[in-house]
Amino acid sequence: MPASAHPGRFGDGIPAAVAAPDGIVEVRGISKTYGGGVEALNNISLTFPEGALTSLLGPSGCGKTTLLKIIAGLVAPTAGEILVKGRRVTGPGPERSFVFQDFALMPWATVLRNAAFGLELRGVARSEREAVAERYIEAVGLKGFEHKYPHELSGGMRQRVGLARALAVNADVVMMDEPFSAVDEQTRRRFQEDLLRLVAQERKTFLFVTHSIEEAVYVSNRIVLLSRRPSRVQRIIEIDLPRDGDPDRIRRHPDYLDTVEDIWQGLRHYVE
Ligand SMILES: Nc1ncnc2c1ncn2[C@@H]1O[C@H](COP(=O)(O)OP(=O)(O)OP(=O)(O)O)[C@@H](O)[C@H]1O
Questions:
Q1: DSSP 8-state class, residue 223
Q2: What is the pLDDT of residue 272?
Q3: Fewer CB within 10 Å of terminal CB in the chain, N or C?
Q4: Is the CB of 40 under 6 A from ligand 1?
């Protein structure tokens, strides 16, 4: 059993409600049935702790993106409510930002303008918003590319612009929907390392959706495992790996390897 893994079995009656006293995002009894009768989520209750990175992991199509979009206020639930810092979510809000799978950049705008766009929408003066955007462009490793356009960048670089934009608005909660799915394995590993650094530096709450067990274990403080659709919370795993020092050490750490294997054993029956 990996260090700090909560005991639990897949497909059994683990309670869906998980309380954490320091939760910044509370998901209360969320269900979602799409028009046409697709039941994506069934009575999900969860608390996301402040300042941590929590990943949502589960079988393909189980509703991970749906849950993230409901928390973002982009999709309305059929039942239940979301509280962020104690306030009920009724739509998108300044305390939450979202990094989309497809980057969602404006092709006609430079990296600088794209990264500053969230602040532009909020009416922040140009010099101020560009100063903030420049800081985050540097933080995501794109210094020197401020005046390039999205089509001049690789997919990985475009993704970094999306991340810089999400960080620049200084939201408390940053949501990322499979942000690294479109890049090659080497770039992906590099991003994962950068993300760990950003999580440590920024002290924001990150909600992360991924398909990859390895990625979830590598970047997360906590993993929420969802069942097959209609999704319920099957298990919460706290990850406590030594995240300072050589990033490759994490991938060789016995707890990392045990946790990856443990999660795989639980999920494998969904794909067999
Ligand atoms: N707008 C929609 N209308 C109808 N059904 C939808 C809509 N969006 C998603 N669904 C369905 O809801 C279910 C959950 O979708 P969702 O994208 O949330 O899952 P996911 O776990 O993020 O998937 P994946 O792992 O493949 O990215 C799927 O069956 C999907 O086809």
A1: E
A2: 61
A3: C
A4: yes
User: Which residues are registered as beta bridge partners of 225?
Assistant: 57, 235
Three-state SS for 12?
coil
Mean pLDDT over the full length of the chain:
85
The ipTM (two decimal places) reads 0.97
- If you ran DSSP here, which 8-state letter would residue 154 be given? -
First to last CA, the chain: 23
**Could you say which DSSP state residue 151 is in?**
G
Q: What is the DSSP letter of 5?
A: B
Sheet holding 205-209, edge to edge: 96-99, 173-177, 205-209, 53-57, 222-226, 233-238
Closest listed residue to residue 130, CA positions, set 146, 145, 149, 142: 146
Facing residues of 231 across strands? 41
Centroid of ligand 1 to alpha carbon of 30 (angstroms): 15
Pocket residue to mutate for ligand 1, from 39, 44, 66, most atoms within 8 A of Cβ = 66
